[in-house]
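Researcher: Good morning. I'm working through a list of sequences from a screen, and I'd like to move beyond sequence-only analysis. For each chain I'm collecting a predicted structure so we can compare shapes side by side. This is the next one on the list. No need for commentary yet; just the structure.
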Amino acid sequence: MPHVESGMTVGLFGGSFNPPHGGHGLVAEIALRRLALDQLWWMVTPGNPLKSRRDLAPLAERIALSEKIARNPRIKVTAFERTLGQSYTARTLEKIRERNRDIHFVWIMGADNLKDFHRWQNWQTIARTFPIAVIDRPGATLAYLSSKMAKTFDYARIDEDDAATLALRKAPAWTFIHGPRSTLSSTALRARSE
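Model: Good morning. Structure tokens for this chain:
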């Protein structure tokens, strides 16, 4: 895990990044700015239980490509999940919390993931572990109203004008952040290269 100092605010931006693209970079930059983060951990996962491993580029390649996009020195590209021996987000977040008790974390996800968030293993545990920032993505803006997660945790939603306080709040707490959106998608990029 990247080095942190006591009391820091850190965003956790996980995904397969297969391949990473400018849209991921935009989400990371918006999160850094709007959430007032000291760091953002760009967590390249070894695999995604909801996606086929057949189409997954090698981890080293996805890390190298992510490093080319994540140019901000406050963004730390990492693949520490590989050493944990599993790829379920709930367990990863539990390990992060165990090893960093005095750090304020926020889970960051694109709105395109919000609609299927309830399919993730222990999704309600994830929502109760760290606050969540959902960053707008094309075609997914209404997910913050209609998704099962949004409905289940409606009481814990904070206004995006208060996003800079999210890391200091007790989970469950979440916000939806509107802003510039990129039409780039890993799925479309993979389809073009085939």
